[in-house]
Amino acid sequence: MPLTNTQVRYYDSNVLRLPKDKRETYNAQVDRLIAALRDSLKKQDKISIKRVVKAGSFAKHTILRKTSEDAVDVDVVFYISGEKVDEETFSSLSQKIYEALIKLYPNKAVEDFEIQRKAATVTFVGTGLDVDIVPVIENPNKEGYGWQFDRIDGSKTETCAPCQVKFVKDRKDQDPDFRTLVRLAKRWRTKAECPLKSFHIELIMAHVLEVNGKEGSLEKRFRDFLLYIA
Questions:
Q1: C-alpha to C-alpha distances, 85 to 80, 105, 135, 147, nearest whole angstrom
Q2: What residue spans define the domains of the chain?
Q3: pLDDT tens digits, 15-33
Q4: What is the pLDDT of residue 45?
Q5: Are the CB atoms for 49 and 7 separated by under 8 Å?
Q6: Dist. CA 172–CA 179, nearest whole Å
Q7: Rg over CA atoms, the chain
Q8: What is the DSSP string of 188-219?
Q9: Contacts of 223 (CB under 8 A, 6+ apart)
Q10: What is the pLDDT at residue 121?
Q11: Record: fold of 16-159
């Protein structure tokens, strides 16, 4: 028996979507971290933080609520100005952030801080929240753009965190169910052990929306997404 749109939306609201109270708790925790880290970096290393942007699935409102299979993480992009991109490396920037985090949280275990491939991660055991601090060298000639480093190969990639958030918001404005469909696809990805990244899902779902429009049941539209990746 096909699922109705009401049933799909109920499942999204009560099983998939991050509850409002949890979002508020995480937002407050991240805001405190941002304020403290910004101040610490300014005093410690004379780093000029031009802007800080919450990014990733949390900022796009496509994040799944925490389960044994789905972690809750928030990407926080620190746009750094006054530094020449050719004179900085991921290691140098992340090490400064890592040292600042340890000073900010002297009672946390060292294991709660980890240098990932493109971010420094801090884990809050109490709430189960992971915060990825992503250093980006600001491009002064392109608003919102900057260079993100790769720890493994040292390469630099141009990125725009606000653009990525806006991309999803624009599609949500076009189709109120867009985020619901993305969350459904992300839960399917986990269960199917599919290697698609979240932004791959967003791009494919956006393509399906562009080609097929927003007509039809949510179940059919989700099946259309699956057909594109089959």
A1: 10, 29, 12, 8
A2: 5-12+166-229, 16-159
A3: 999 999 999 999 999 999 9
A4: 61
A5: no
A6: 6
A7: 19
A8: HHHHHT----HHHHHHHHHHHHHHH-S-S-HH
A9: none
A10: 82
A11: Beta Polymerase; domain 2 (3.30.460)
